[in-house]
Amino acid sequence: MRHSELAQVLRAANPWWSRRTRVSWAVDDVHLAQRARHEWLTGTLAGRAALSDVAHTPAGTATVLVGPRAVGKTTAAKDAVVHALAEPDLDARAVLWVPVEATPDDPFPDRPALDAQDLDNALRRPTRVGAPACDQPRLVVLDEASACGDWADVLATPVPGVRVLVTASVGGAAVERVQAGWEGAATVRSLRPSTLAELLGAQPGADARTVREEYLRYGGFARAVAERRDLGDVSTAFVDLLAEGLRRDVCTGDGSAPCPIERLFVAVCSTTGRFVEPAEIAVELGIPAEQVGHLLDRLADAGVLDPRRGFVDPLLHLLPSLRDPSLPHPSQEHVATYSF
User: What percent of the chain has pLDDT over 70?
Assistant: First the structure.
């Protein structure tokens, strides 16, 4: 991306640089507004706890927040920015939000994901790509960094004078490489859907059987739990957000899926016995076993698959039939067996 184009992206993503919107931006922020409409407080508190110290970490350190798509990483990072900007001695120009992946609400929704050179410029030469000059150590947030296949190369070594916060939907070897390169100066945190035990603990007066039945149908993603409570069901918008994000993460990681994500999920559900069975999935999909192995590794790195048990949240079992009602709908018994 040309420097001028990246500067446009960054100006739109950092409204606090302007005195006119420095205070009001959080009211209009898409992610914070969506949470305000349907908020599950347990999920909000988990995100805030994961990043509670980001505003006070020293320069030359990195915090990496990993977790599945749609679990709330971006919103948690926005909370961290709100907290940082509330510090009276912080120059708002020191906070740089870098949206690696374009989302439907992006001012430039058709732009490609930022590449490694874009990330490197934002981290090490920010004024060259439109960030205002600032004398304070910067807080640079790389949101959805795993949308850039080479993001770990950019962060293979520390960035002097910068506090880095990364959100990533795909963990695994890339995150381990960053940890190794920063030699103790990089911290990894995780955010995941609530378990049944956590949902029961958050609703002490609720009927346990009802909570269990709702969990098996709607899962523990914070937005899904809140939408079920407020709307009676999980919205199509959230299901699509989750499915499309997983498609980008899992099916080769570049957005060109070798098979529809729904078919892959159905094959995993229908063939899993005591363990996830790659050979049977390959037969079901009609693709080479080596390719299936790659897809399963991506599912595991994306935080949605336990190779020993299957999908980590009930909503993932139901995702294909929610997207396409003609696809098989797993029984409650199946979901219960492979969700606990």
Answer: 97
